[in-house]
Amino acid sequence: MQGAAPVQRPSWDWRPNPDLRGRVALVTGAGRGIGRSLALALGTMGARVAGCALEEDQLGETERLLRERPGANEAGEPRTFFQRCDITDEDALSRFVAGTIAALGVPDVVVANAGVTDPDHRRIVDLPLPVWERIIRVNLTGTFLTLKHVLPPMMSRGSGNVIVITSLLGQRGYGKANDGPYCASKFGVEGLVEVAAAECSPYGVNINTLFPAAKVNTGFFARLPLRERESLEPPSVIDEPALFLASLPPGSLTGEAINGKVWREDVNYRRKLFERLQRTTT
Predict the structure, then answer these.
(1) Measured CA distances, 86 to 35, 146, 173, 196 (Å)
(2) N or C: lower Cβ tally within 10 Å for the chain?
(3) pLDDT tens figures, 4-57
(4) Does residue 282 sit in helix, strand or coil?
(5) Cα distances (angstroms) measured from residue 250 to each of 200, 207, 247
(6) What would you report as the CA-atom Rg of the chain, rounded to the nearest whole angstrom?
């Protein structure tokens, strides 16, 4: 399988091993793909991880993998909280967030990752209304509900990092034919995050988006031939910039849309991000 090229690091560059011990990370869509990879990455750095998804068996596998990592049972404290949850069901999502707080504490890191697409990639004129409505409801409304319920306790505490997983197809100039509802939902998410970042900045909560800018070997491409799928980037492709965003100090870098591909390949891109971060913390 093709993997991300190793990042060449000058002496000033960020190192991908933040200490997240004592932190609580909440991940939606944690049952597989990018969500599972990010949950495992956060757990490996010491975070206590809460995760939700629709598929209980996949969610259970993610939790098992987390519990098997070194140091999972240190200090005798709960390390995970996993629960089946439909993020478009506000009552269910509210219960999941409340359960996370009761079991692990107020989240320090939130990864809003859950999302769906139209696997048939139909034109707008051929798209059934229920397909449009489902994609908008999961990707956009689900993100809105996630923010609505995770932000109040983070704002009250005065700190936190929210990472919303989006797509290159949600960036201006990258709309793609036959992906109308997915593009519209991700454009909407980018606008929603811009507003949320402005609203939460006075409370020390950073909210940023992150996207791979590459095809990733997840369920989105399950219909591709096996050989073609094996040539795609692995789900771990954005682990590193996600860990960077998860470790930001309160009230620092916020309202950014982070391109995972450029992060990996362009040292000057990372330098500019770090320079902006330094200006907010000095």
Answers:
(1) 15, 11, 31, 22
(2) C
(3) 555 566 655 666 688 999 999 999 999 999 999 999 999 999 999 999 999 999
(4) coil
(5) 11, 11, 9
(6) 18
> Of 170 and 220, which is predicted with more confidence?
170
The reply to whether 9 falls in a domain is no
Q: Higher-confidence residue: 136 or 17?
A: 136
Q: In what order do the strands lie in the sheet with 205-211?
A: 80-84, 48-53, 24-28, 109-112, 160-165, 205-211, 257-259
Task: Decide: 33 and 235 in contact? Cβ < 8 Å.
Answer: yes
- Residue 179 maps to a domain: yes
CATH number for position 262? 3.40.50.720
Q: What is the pLDDT of residues 93-129, one digit of tens each?
A: 999 999 999 999 999 999 999 999 999 999 999 999 9
The Cα 273–Cα 271 span in angstroms is 5
Q: State which residues form the domain around 179.
A: 24-281
Of 168, 162, 170, whose CA–CA distance to 262 is shortest? 168
Q: What does each C-alpha distance from 94 to 90, 142, 170, 211 come to in angstroms?
A: 6, 12, 27, 26
> What token pair was written down for 171?
């960036």
CA-to-CA distance for 162 and 242, rounded, in angstroms? 10
Angle between the N-to-C axes of helices 180-200 and 129-136, in degrees from 0 to 180, rounded to the nearest 10 = 30
Task: Locate 240 and state its tokens.
Answer: 């590193």
Answer yes or no: is 199 within a domain: yes
Domain-embedded: residue 274: yes
Looking at this protein, which amino acid is placed at residue 152? Answer: P
Pairing of strands 109-112, 24-28: parallel
Q: How far is CA 222 from the centre of its chain?
A: 20
Total number of domains constituting the chain: 1
3-state DSSP assignment of residue 99: helix
Told to judge if 182 belongs to the known catalytic residues of this protein, a careful annotator would answer: yes
Residue in 174, 182, 203, 269 annotated catalytic: 182
Q: How far apart are CA 37 and CA 43, in angstroms?
A: 10
